[in-house]
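Thread: adenosine-5'-diphosphate complex, take 2
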Amino acid sequence: NGSKDCADKSLVDEKYHLKEQLGTGAFSEVRLAESKEKPGQLFAVKIIDKKALKGKEDSLENEIMILRKLTHPNIVQLLETFEDKNKVYLIMELVTGGELFDRIVEKGSYTEKDAAHLIRQVLEAVDYMHEQGVVHRDLKPENLLYYSPDKESKIMISDFGLSKMEDGGIMATACGTPGYVAPEVLAQKPYGKAIDVWSIGVISYILLCGYPPFYDENDVNLFAQILKGEFEFDSPYWDEISGSAKDFIKNLICVNVEKRFSCKQALAHPWISGNEASSKNIH
Ligand code: ADP
Ligand code: MG
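Output below.
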């Protein structure tokens, strides 16, 4: 059933020495792992509690098979998987630069150049995933990890696909991170790849001004804002930001799914492709 390399826990312990915790999420723990075969080789292992999956182990396995096929410089590589009675272990490439979330908090906001460079990498990775038929569903700054502590480090997408497994489906996802969720998800309409583009729009907005486009302490009001796609480029925060950046964001945070950019269209936008000035002289 496609779980050839899902063996018992003793096999994880045979190959890896599990060390300190790197992070936690809704239904999992991520720990550092050192190869026993090659001491010094480090990995990240995501340990998922099967109880949290509530009988959805099969869809997790399907998802894992898809994820193992994804290979991209901006996607955290899934290397191998193990399982025992209570847990699933995902051995992943280790990244050491921390969450985008923490760098935003640290920096306040990004310059347009830095934001565009970062968003371009995210779009390239998500475009690749979409070509493989995979929708991330949970793009947010906590799930974007820097490869290294270096200032110039590339960004890596992590934690993909698995949100689908959460019990409660739509509402679980929406309540987890309402600020990034596309209106069609909240409206419980059928949804697809376009939900990732919406989230990338929200992330772009936050990078440029340091605060989210949709916010209300009350989730009902927040949902209403998102459903209408009501957001502003407030003065004075957005006064110095280019029209091109704003145009880019408006095409991503767009309620109409038909009109919302695809990743390819977003990649071709002058704010990302850098064809701003020169494009006028090409033809
Ligand atoms: P969840 O689905 O529970 O949110 P994530 O995959 O987002 O789990 O992982 C939770 C946290 O663990 C991340 O936000 C990050 O801080 C850390 N983490 C996840 N994957 C890695 C990795 N490959 N390398 C280093 N740290 C990681
Ligand atoms: Mg996460």
